[in-house]
Design brief:
The complex is a heterodimer. Helices cover about 0% and strands about 45% of the residues of chain A. Chain A has strands at about 10-15, 20-25, 35-40, 45-50, 55, 60-65, 70-75, 85-90, 90-95, 100-105, 110-115. The N and C termini of chain A lie far apart (about 35 Å). Chain B is mostly beta strands. Chain B has no helices and eleven strands. Chain B has strands at about 5, 10-15, 20-25, 30-35, 45-50, 55, 65, 75-80, 85-95, 105, 110-115. Classes of the chains: A mainly beta, B mainly beta. The interface of A and B includes residues 32 and 51 of A.
């Protein structure tokens, strides 16, 4: 079962900041929050991840609340190419053979539409 | 260019036939994964492999089989036992070692339609 809750859909005006919320109230102390996005009929693309500190890269910023029960992905200046389904995922480590391979449980995500 | 490739992009098969989907990566990643996606749904894990000659069942392995004879390749066979094989199939890979950074890279996907 998915361990995160996201709104089904959101709209954002082109050029504005898109703020995508995610609730992960049952997250455990060593679980990371990952964000991926999927443009129609393509493979998902990694955006960003974090444990407890806020993170920023060239694509987005990730704000994680102090209690780690929720987070927000921020696309600072949304463009039409940012229209996609955005997945918030809590990484579950599969620790067999002592390899750090993650099971990424994808829910249905948030369908973000950027409006011209 | 480093990356992960899947072929073909579109595949049609008759009901009752086995079909094998290709996945190749040149990223030198240890771990590889197969996911299935149905319309309007998220991804579900079929099989994963942590190293060569090893693989484990995911959440929906019934009716599927895999092999991992080479590090670069992780083919998925959709057998006639899979009751509803029409779907979008995605392959992914990751470094696979214990790390705080273990992004999964996805291929472009294969859309399988069983007639």
């Amino acid at each position: 079962d998915a361990k995160t809750t996201q709104p089904t859909s959101m709209d954002c005006a082109e050029g504005r900041a898109a703020n995508l919320p995610c609730n992960h109230s049952t997250i455990s102390g060593n679980e990371y929050v990952y964000w991926y996005r999927q443009i129609h009929s393509q493979g998902p693309q990694y955006i960003i991840h974090g444990l407890k500190n806020n993170e920023t890269n060239e694509m987005a910023s990730l704000i994680i609340t102090e209690d780690r029960k929720s987070s927000t992905l921020i696309l600072p200046h949304a463009t039409l190419r940012d229209t996609a389904v955005y997945y918030c995922i809590v990484r579950e480590t599969m620790s067999t053979l002592n390899f750090g391979n993650e099971k990424l449980t994808f829910g249905t995500g948030t369908r973000l539409t950027i409006i011209p | 260019d480093g990356g992960i490739t899947q072929s073909p992009k579109y595949l049609f098969r008759k009901e009752g036939q086995n079909v094998t989907l290709s996945c190749e990566q040149n990223l030198n990643h240890d771990a590889m994964y197969w996911y299935r996606q149905d319309p309007g749904q998220g991804l579900r894990l079929i099989y994963y492999s942590q190293i060569v000659n090893d693989f484990q069942k995911g959440d929906i392995a019934e009716g599927y089989s895999v092999s991992r004879e080479k590090k670069e390749s992780f083919p998925l066979t959709v057998t006639s036992a899979q009751k509803n094989p029409t779907a979008f199939y995605l392959c992914a890979s990751s470094i696979g070692r214990l790390s705080s950074y273990n992004e999964q890279f996805f291929g472009p996907g294969t859309r399988l339609t069983v007639l």
